[in-house]
Amino acid sequence: MSHAPIEPNWAARVAIALAVLLALVTAITLAVTIGEMQIPLSTAFQALGNGMFDLGYPVSAIQQGVIFDYRLSRALLAALCGGTLALSGAILQALLRNPLAEPYILGISAGASTGAVAVMILGFGGAVLTISGGAFIGAVVALLVVAALATGAGGSSDRVILAGVAGSQLFNAATATIVTTLANAEQARGVMFWLLGNFGGVRWPDVWVATPVALICFGVCMLHAKVLDAFAFGADAAASLGVAVTRVRIVLFATTAVMTATMVSIVGTVGFVGLVIPHAARFLVGPAHARLLPACLVIGAIFMILADILSRILVPQQILPIGVVTALFGAPAFALILYRARRAT
Amino acid sequence: MTLAAHDIRWSAARRMIVDGVTLRAEPGRILGLIGPNGSGKSSLLRLLCRLRKVESGVVTLDDRDLATVPRRDLAKRLAFVEQQASTEVQLSVCDVVKLGRTPHRGALASWSDVDEAAVEAALERVDMAARHDQLWHTLSGGERQRVHIARALAQEPRELILDEPTNHLDIQHQLSILALLRRLGVTCILALHDLNLASLFCDEIAVLHEGKVVASGAPPDVLTEDLIARVFGVAVSIRAGASGRRHIEYLIDPPEPGVVTAPPRPALKNTHGG
Ligand SMILES: Nc1ncnc2c1ncn2[C@@H]1O[C@H](COP(=O)(O)OP(=O)(O)OP(=O)(O)O)[C@@H](O)[C@H]1O
Ligand SMILES: [Mg+2]
Questions:
Q1: Residue A251 at interface with chain B, using a CB cutoff of 8 Å
Q2: Which one, of A305, A296, A297, lies nearest residue A326 by Cα?
Q3: Is residue B121 classed as helix, strand or coil in its secondary structure?
Q4: Which segments of B169-257 are extended strands (E)?
Q5: B121 touches chain A (CB under 8 A)
Q6: Distance from CA of B46 to the nearest CA of A (A)
Q7: pTM over cut 0.90
């Protein structure tokens, strides 16, 4: 009897890891060199060297600033954002057993933005509650509302999506209410632009917040990789395999809420990444979460960096909101997945 | 000593579904649960493997309250095959059986030779080794059932709880799965619908009716014409079959007790002419 080896050998693994790393570095290099201001590749590398290792190359202050403080931080944040949203999508799809689950469709992003906007405009909590704190509370509230709606509607896995749609509408309406009644014109414009997602305002401090969040959440998810596999046949099947279903759900839903809230508070709502990337990753590495989760992180990162580049060059002289670019890819992919899911049943 | 329920109750939607059930599985023997649709078999099995919490009474494993056994220890000890369990994840047969190793592996443990051997042995036992790499959703209903049983066997349990394991199986595989369960030597509790198979393969039978055990004991003592008529509302005649074993025959058009006559067959001729 012959079948494929259970684990690829080490050489193959190292090769794959290197290739993936190379792709990521290439994407970041592209992101750093492409933009309004034409800067030669050599200068870009010199500016990176200066920024990271203080090498003292002669690079003009403006170019140094654009490359290192503006484009690199932006590329890294795009990577973190894409990676964590994809990860959140994979986790939600496994826990809810629904191929359409992701933070945006389930209304978690909408809840997070309501929370963030409330803090921004109402100044809820003042100094104590930061915007990301508000976003986290909003995300958790949205999760609870959607969970309650879904349970009330019968609890089946497709009800969750309907509940998510209702939740999204509810929280978007709440956000709009806060903005239109309480914000001044300038605030309103700023919030509306931020809501569609944009990396324009990203600076290094954002990266220093997002990096540990992404790494810790990724670690938590990886610790649950086998447990997520056990959810394939539902919560009862997982429980009979020794999984602490309730605890795992709470921990992982909270983890996705943290990831989503962090990203929403920095870049606004970016949809569909969490939907499309896990499917692409599954296609490449299969459904086992020990491989799927890292694949989501990396593919999500690369996808988001490229989407950000597109957002900057698609319309000359103008920057599209990143959420618009991801929706451009995501909405057709959503339709495709929906169509395939229909055929499968 | 193995699994036992002591006067357990469970309700749903303000209705008693399992209503004071007491039963005991004997080590290495097969306990069959029979009863009409909705009599609470699946609910009772879920209580026995702690997928639901009993509202009163207690389930014990080796005289220890089941509620106090750590989850993973329980999953290494007791495996459950659900009545219907499906997935949309693109898993192969071997992926599904591998899930059975979950309780045996830590969060960071890699796949070991022991795990691999358990999976291969389980697939071999249900006669599905040749389908190792086939995708789950391309399997027939009976093949899926056998893969689920293999998954349960990969847990290497001492107690095996099965909810209608012969569902979807053709008669050959019904017999072979039940024969397999007998050979395994593990303690089995299973819900069954086929009364003849139940009396053939079970060491003991408990009859469930509206959440209560109305009879239990050795098959010949439990499965009587009277009880089946009372619980299932079906008239039967029980007598020795060709092999000398008891055979339960369903009487479609019940004549006098004990008298079996085939209904007269209408003559096959054209009655519309004329
Ligand atoms: N969660 C629940 N909420 C409401 N009613 C329930 C619930 N679970 C079970 N029931 C009811 O309890 C009764 C027993 O269900 P159960 O599935 O245990 O029956 P069963 O004996 O396994 O039947 P079958 O032979 O059809 O499999 C049914 O009437 C069912 O509708
Ligand atoms: Mg049942």
A1: no
A2: A305
A3: helix
A4: 187-191, 204-209, 212-217, 236-240, 246-250
A5: no
A6: 9
A7: no
3-state secondary structure A139-151: HHHHHHHHHHHHH
d(CA B117, CA B94): 12
Cα gap A83→A213, rounded to integer Å: 12
C-alpha B107: how far from its chain's center?
Answer: 31
Indicate yes or no: CB of A239 within 8 angstroms of CB of B51: yes
Q: Which two tokens stand for residue A71?
A: 């484009």
Domains of chain B: 3-218 (3.40.50.300)
Tens digits of pLDDT across chain A (345 residues): 344 444 557 788 888 889 988 999 999 999 988 887 778 888 888 888 888 888 888 888 888 888 888 899 999 999 999 999 999 999 999 998 888 889 998 999 999 999 988 888 877 655 556 888 888 899 999 999 988 888 877 767 778 888 999 999 999 999 989 888 887 888 888 788 778 788 888 888 889 999 999 999 999 999 999 999 999 999 999 999 999 999 999 999 999 999 999 998 888 888 889 999 999 899 888 899 999 999 999 999 999 999 999 988 888 778 888 888 888 888 888 788 777 766 554
Q: Which of A4, A224, A241 sits opposite B99 (nearest CB)?
A: A241
Sorted by where each starts, the structural domains of chain A and their CATH numbers stand as 10-344 (1.10.3470.10)
Give the count of beta carbons closer than 10 Å to the beta carbon of residue B102. 23
Query: Residue A159 C-alpha to ligand 1 middle, in angstroms?
Result: 22
B80 in A contact zone (CB under 8 Å): yes
Ligand 1 pocket by Cβ (under 6 Å): B 12-13, 17, 35, 37-43, 83
Chain centre distance of CA A192: 19
Count Cβ neighbours within 10 Å for each residue of B170-206 and write b for 16 or more, e otherwise: eeebbeebbebbbeeebbbbbbbebbbbbbbbbebbb
Cβ < 5 A residues, ion ligand 2: B 41-42, 83
Determine whether the interchain pair A242/B76 forms a contact, defined as Cβ–Cβ distance below 8 Å.
Answer: yes
